[in-house]
Amino acid sequence: MSEIAAKFLKESKLKAFDLDHRKKINFNIGKYNNAFKKGLLQYQNLDLAKSRAANIKSKTVNDLDKYLVDFELNFTNNGGKVIWAVDAEEARNEVLKILKKHGAKQLVKMKSMTTEEIELNPFLEKQGIESLETDLGEYIVQLAGEKPYHIVTPAMHKSKEDIALLFNEKMGWDEGLSPEQITSKVRVKLRDKFYHADVGITGANFLIADTGSFALTENEGNGVLCMSMPKVHIAIAGIEKIIPSINDLDIFWPLLSSHGTGQHMSVYNSIINGPKKPNEKDGPEECYVIILNNKRTQLLEQEEQRVALSCIRCGACLNACPVYKNIGGHTYEATYSGPIGSVISPWMLGMKDYKHLSFASTLCGACTEVCPVKIPLHDLLLLNRRDAVSQKYTTSMERISVKGSSKFLMNRKWVDFFSGKTKQFFISLFIKKLWGNNRTFPPIADKSFHDEWVKK
After folding, report:
1. Residues of the chain with CATH 1.10.1060
2. Among 147-156, 244-253, 406-415, which stretch is predicted with the lowest mean pLDDT?
3. CA distances (Å), 176 to each of 181, 187, 190, 241, in order?
């Protein structure tokens, strides 16, 4: 077992029985669930919308090279600049080159999981460059010295009292401030940063091939300020963010909003075509898009699992997952947590160290059911498990125990030979430790279902 897997098991046991953590997560996901149900009411035929989105994404993933080249050509024609980054290090260095070229010392950031993936903030901090998160949730976790807890709602693990206490400790603000008062004070503080920032950095929800544009979705307006007020705008996006046409946004924007936050549409939806034109008053003078691989092509090579690249990062599968709701986002020790993270992380971070995430699932299928682009997540988790075994990333003890138990359980005479009490004894001897000290192992019935069936 890898050190990362061992740490995961240890942390998950602690989090699963942390009642305070569970209370906060249940409250916040409960609010999401109520909004989610209302958000879906806008659809007359939700399954048709999801099927359309899945078909578009599947087509795009299979012809990824074509659409990416189209995007580069059209975005360049719009006056923008495209940079290809093989991995996280190359992406960080390309950002640094741009910042040095423009003598930048301060930058403002919109919420972006891709920049979290390449660990951009710690890198820039070492270079003496201030990188400030301007999304309220991201600002909170940055202030706390933490990583995002959730793909969409990064501070989901904190209550309003936790946040008020954090601002009291870091800013000296009154501990009794309401969420509305805190938001107002943060807005005033950040507004000054927008005015003086040299560079704005965002992600991109969608790269649009036919117009050479990229689309941003947000609810706070900070993204609009990040891309329009500084003289330089840098967007960083994974290769999978591409869609064929601007017309496809009519299906993807509502699906992203309804599944991400339960809204019919997010408050701010922007399409950026590049730097401002000579006749335009607002916008950056230079606009860059860094397109990131970072082992996504390794996932693309998997004929069955490549469909995971269709993900639009709505976070719905996290909110539906019973494992995520018990162990929380930080336990995964990966940028992308929950079911989608458990599918893609072993390929992007290494099967040897991260194959355990694909085993951390009940396989209940709730994630597949809520996915707006119909990714069969629970099937992909099983395929990852298969590949982890075929690549021999299992211990000899695991292989022996699975082989032995399979041989025993597939022999009806052997199973029926032992009484319920005998089975209970062996289970308590060999399995109870794995079951954990905080749970009571269910009692084995005296008679098996097979015995009862024959009798009746």
Report:
1. 3-13+16-27+311-390
2. 406-415
3. 10, 18, 21, 42
Question: 410 burial class (0-12, 13-18, 19+ CB within 10 angstroms)?
Answer: exposed
Fold of domain 61-294: Rossmann fold (3.40.50)
pLDDT at 399: 82
Q: What is the DSSP letter of 277?
A: P
Residues 414-441 have a mean pLDDT of: 72
Give CA–CA dist 226/112, Å, rounded.
Answer: 12
Give rounded-to-5 percent helix, strand, coil for the chain. 60, 10, 30
> What is this structure's pTM?
0.91
Q: Given the structure tokens 């005479």, which residue do they identify?
A: 413
Using pLDDT thresholds of 50, 70 and 90, give the confidence band for residue 419. low
- Which whole-number Å values give the CA distances from 19 to 23, 46, 90, 440, in the listed order? 6, 36, 42, 18
Helices (H), 262-302: 296-300
CA quadruple 358, 360, 362, 364: dihedral, nearest 10: -50
CB contact at 8 A, 133 and 107: no
